[in-house]
Amino acid sequence: MTTHQAVQAITDEYRRRTPQSLAHCQAAARVLPGGDTRRAVYFRPYPTFIQRGEGCVIYDVDGNRYLDFNNNYTSLIHGHAHPAVVEAVQAQVARGTLYASPTACQYELAGMLAERIPSVERVRFCNSGTEATMMAMRLARAYSGKDVILKMDGGYHGTHDFAEINITASAEIETRPPLRKESQGIPDCILDAMMVVPFNDLDAVEETLTAYNHRIAAVIVEPMMNAGGLVASRPGYLSGLRELADKYGVLLIFDEIVTFRLSLGGWQLLDKVMPDITTLGKIIGGGLPVGAIGGRADIMEMFNPTRPHSLKHSGTFNGNSVTVEAGIATLKEYGRKEIDRVNELGKRLRRGIADAFQACGLRANVTGRGSLAYIHWTGQEIATAS
Ligand code: PLP
Question: Among 210, 217, 207, 213, which Cα is nearest to 277's?
C-alpha cells in the first residue's frame, strides 16, 4: 500500500465513523468561518465534535470513545471532570462567578504558586497564556526602560503580535535567523521590538547581547519548547542564559505555561535556575481560561496600583472566582505523589512508543519529559524546534 492509499483508507474509515461530526461541522460553518474558532483544533477533512469527557476518556457526537492524550493541549492535569474540580466550580458558580472586587481566593492561589516556585514572589492573574507572555514582555520593557525582546527561533508564546514571530524554526541554523511574521495583520513595527536566536545556542545569545544589550529588555525562553515539538533545553543552557542575562543586564523570562506541571515548581525547580519573571497558564486554572505572571517582588512591584505611574494591567475576567477555585482544587490534588505518578506514566508512554517504532522499523522519534510526550516523524536527533 502506498502512503497515499494508506491516508485514503484512514480518511474513509474516519468519515464512516463520524457522520454526526461532519453534520455539526457543516452547521458550524454557517456561523463560524470554516466551522472553526480555534486554529489548533481544526484538521482535514473535518474535526471531531466532542460531546463529553470523563477522566482520561472523551466521547464524540457519534458515540465513539477515545483515550485523550491531548487533555486540551496539556491544560487538564487531572483529565476531564475531576470530582474535586467539579465540586469547587459548582460551589463557586452558586455563589456568583465574579465580582468587581478582589476576593480571598485570588491570594490563596497566588500563595500556592509562590510557595511552589522559588522565583515567584508576587503574582498577577490574567485569562490566557497569550496574555501572560504579552504582559511579561510589557513588564520587562517597563522595568528596564528598553524595548526589544529576544526570543528563540521556533519558540511559542501564544498569539499576540510580539509572540507570532518565528514560531516555526528556520530551516537554516544561523546566529540571527531572519525575523518572520507568522500571521497576516502583524504590523512591521513589531519587528523593531523583537530579535531571534536559535534555541539551545548560548553563543548566539552572547553575540546578540554583546551587540545589543543596550536595547534588549529581556530574553524569553521555554525551558522545553512545547509547540516546537517538546524540545528540551540542553543541560547547562538555562543556567548559561541566567549568567548571560546577569552579565549583560537583561531580564530572564521563563515561559513555564506547559512545563510548570513537571515538578512542584516547574522546570526551573528541577534545573535550579531562577528566572526574573515566569509565565504560567494551562493547569493552574483547573481547565478554565487562565494565565499568570509571576516574578521577583521588585519587578512585579511595577504593577502595584498604589505606586505613581504603575504599570497598567486590567481585565474584566482577571482572577475570576470560578477559575481561581478550580485552580486551587487542581493544585491541591497535584502534590509530589501525583506529579511522580504522572511523570512515571509519561516515561512509560514514551518508552512504549519508542519501542513500537523500533519494532516496526519506523524512522520516528519520541521526545518529552515527565508527563509530556511528542512524536517526530524523523529518525534524526531533535535539538531545535520542528
Ligand atoms: N506559551 C506556551 C509555552 C504555550 O504552549 C502556549 C499555548 O500552548 C502559550 C504560551 C499560549 O497560551 P494560551 O493558548 O493559553 O494563550
Answer: 217
